[in-house]
Amino acid sequence: MLRVRPHRRVAGTTATALLLVGLAPTAGFAQDVRLLAQCSAPQLTASGPFPAGAEDRALPSPSLATVSCNLWATDAVTFKGVKASIKGRTDRLDVQFEPRNQTLAVMFVIQMMDPSRRSVMTPMLDAVVRIAEPRDSRHRYAAYTVANDLNLVADFGSSKGDFDKQVRAVRGAALPTQLYKGALEAIAKLAKEKAERKALVILGDGNSDDQSYEHEQVVKAAKEAGVIIHALGFATEAAEQPKFQNIRRLADDTGGFRREVRVGATQRYTIGPQFVAEALENGGTATISLREPPGPTTVTMTADFGGGRSESAHYAMTVPASPAAPQPAAPVLLEPGAPLTSWYEKLFAWARENKTVALISGIALGLGSIGLALFGFSSYAARKDRLQAVAEQPVYGWLDMLDGNASRYPLQTTNVRIGRHRDNDICLLNDSISRRHAVLHFDAEKRTFVITDLGGGNGVVVNKIKQQSHDLNDGDLVELGEVRLRFRANAEAMG
Fold first, then answer.
1. Of 95, 1, 71, 75, nearest in space to 31 by CA
2. How many CA atoms lie within 13 A of 373 on its CB side?
3. What is the pTM of this model?
4. Tens digit of pLDDT for each residue in 306-326?
């Protein structure tokens, strides 16, 4: 029986968000499978009546909106279709699913091993050649080795014959492995390639002697470059298996495939001819139609895979409200004794703004001293001035949402309230966030922002340390419950 493990994520309203949901291990399946979704904010198309069976008629009229989600899975699967519904309801939403049809750039990073481990090294090189078999205008491959440095084996422009020959010619070497350093260099190279989908496949036992680079740096660089990391484990003996977690975690945190392929003489997983299609480029785009009242809602997406397998993901989003209808301009009372020139100016301004023919000749001359209520004179100029003033306020810094969500919150006031309640300056719709969680205060003397815990249950963590109050520096990692943010200072505005 399939068991869905939902992972809460912040509901995005202006940018994409990443949601991961796991599948419990079942007989015949070698590892957990996760369905991943990366969705844009819902786009309003129209408003309409409540759907049949709606119980709460006091809610605002529902909006017609569409949301586009990029879906993929962390195992080698074939997507057969996608269904969607509002969480807690049985009625189906209208979904159009388009399988993936994108250009793919794959970079292999082969971990160097001692020459005595050729029994594992040779199958590892064979796996690279087998994966790179499907070659056409949409698929391109390059291969590197990693030890102390990242070294080119075969570039993206190599022919199939040259690629296979150069990969099979790789020989082992007893050298320290700078795994994270090499991965960072590979990501930087892959980021420059022109492809809609980019995959970094790391093959090896996961051993790393890095002293200057860390897991988090690699994950951050991969997400910023749009690179998914995949991990294929090759170990000479069972005692080396724990090292595989180094590259498995890179795959887990970027949404990639990960599997132990070979341990000693035992083949744990066989790479077939459909590996690229099923593991590196599975999934596609689901366009979902929503007819919901404005506000937060949760959509459940279910992907059906070949072999009768399926997996679901819950995704929180916010349905936008329909634009408010234009409101009539507020009436303006002309005070007794006001000059006729002022009366005329207001009347003609009202007529121009409301595109109305005003019959004023001969009327105003007899009414200059008794006062008149004039409807239609708007405060457009005042509203414009206020909006202009807000736009001209300096931006002292930003809070950037991490975990795949590219939301950026500008800090334009000296006191920024953060919490789940809608009256906060930054509203984070996540159950781990308190209604009033924290406040950012700009200290004019120190020219820095100070974050203070307002007593929320999950507290405030800065750079992995729980804080009651802490001065923020550019680049600091701020964790509020499950939500991770990166503080960025605007040095020019802060002085």
1. 75
2. 4
3. 0.60
4. 989 999 988 998 888 776 655
